Amino acid sequence: MLSQQAIWLLIWLIGERTAEEIKIEIGTALLENKTEALSKKIEIRGRDSITGLPRTITLTQEQINEAIMPVLLEIIAGVKGVLEKTPPELASDIIDKGIVMSGGTSLLNNFDKLMTRQTGVPCHVAEDALLCVVRGTGVALENIELYKRSISKK
Question: H or E stretch including 58?
Fold first, then answer.
């Protein structure tokens, strides 16, 4: 059984593309069924960083979940921190409408459910989550005069 640190090192060594494949194929933020989490597996091929020889290892969904959970909990802690500092009038809107998650990590299976459980606020993945931030930035830049009040200078 590989340790959490070993799995993180492996993910770092395999590269972003393979890590993304792992996330899509068997990655999950919540293990809903322990037996299923142990049976879902992925083979990873690469070069052994110690011997330099080609090597294949098999990781389970449970191992991947264990390895990524600290990072997911850091993200959730950041969201909670923002919610704690949110003025009451905005907080009520967030509670009513929920949190909209964007970016690649939001596409991790069940991350919206984990975020909802941890924050107590309904969470939803944005439509076209990978590109919506870029599009929103483009809209803001095209209408910079309208958005100047929202931009803070530090």
Answer: strand 54-60
